[in-house]
Design goal:
elongated, 121 residues
């Protein structure tokens, strides 16, 4: 069994209410994000690859375009623009691209990350 991880970066702004950070969090502010997409599987005997990285890269570029230099609060399908919801949002848009294991979103500017392992149940 192999795991393969590919990442993309995006810059985005958001505003969050009801946190212990108070007014600083409620004001529109931006972050640098890095999303890691991990797939798991056995290499295809014909290609030797778990997933075609070109196809995965194309799918990731579409998601990156949705998020990069955007005000995340305006993306309705995202919900509240938290790390938790960002990782779920990315999963839902990439689950067709391979056997996803996890999506990790890093908020590099704050040294924080959140990993989503897909729907449970």
């Amino acid at each position: 069994m192999w795991e393969l991880t590919k990442a993309f970066r995006f810059e985005a702004a958001h505003a969050l209410t009801g946190t212990t950070f108070g007014a600083d969090s409620e004001e529109i502010h931006g972050h640098s994000f890095r999303a890691e997409v991990t797939v798991r599987g056995t290499p295809d005997p014909k290609t030797g690859m778990v997933v075609d990285l070109g196809l995965l890269e194309r799918a990731m570029a579409e998601v990156q375009k949705m998020l990069d230099h955007k005000f995340l609060n305006k993306i309705e399908a995202l919900g509240l623009p938290t790390l938790e919801n960002l990782s779920r949002f990315i999963w839902e848009r990439l689950e067709h691209a391979g056997k996803l294991t996890r999506i990790t979103v890093h908020r590099d500017s704050c040294n924080e990350s959140c990993t989503y392992y897909g729907p449970q149940g």
